[in-house]
Amino acid sequence: MKQSEIKELSTADLNEKLGAMQKNYTDLKMAHAITPLENPLQLRSLRRTVARIATELTKRELQ
């Protein structure tokens, strides 16, 4: 997800997406520990998306 897409979502949607993305990231990380993923860069992109969503939520709380 791009930052512009994240800014358009509501806070409730962001919280929902954050939970889903974190679960997906942990599942992929566990799968990668057992057998290497075909594309390990998925982990990096997912981790960065989680960070972008968390940053947007924090920014909205501070405003």
Automatic annotation (TrEMBL):
Q: Which GO terms describe its cellular component?
A: ribosome
Family matches, as CDD domains: Ribosomal_L29_HIP
InterPro entries named among the record's database cross-references: Ribosomal_uL29, Ribosomal_uL29_CS, Ribosomal_uL29_sf
Q: Does the keyword Ribonucleoprotein apply?
A: yes
Give the coiled coil ranges: none
Check the record and name the PROSITE patterns matching this protein.
RIBOSOMAL_L29
Arranged from A to Z, the UniProt key words for this protein are: Ribonucleoprotein, Ribosomal protein
Q: Does the keyword Ribosomal protein apply?
A: yes
Family to which the UniProt record says this protein belongs: Belongs to the universal ribosomal protein uL29 family.
State the name under which the record lists this protein.
Answer: Large ribosomal subunit protein uL29
Organism of origin = Polaribacter marinivivus
Recall the taxonomic lineage recorded for the source organism.
Bacteria, Pseudomonadati, Bacteroidota, Flavobacteriia, Flavobacteriales
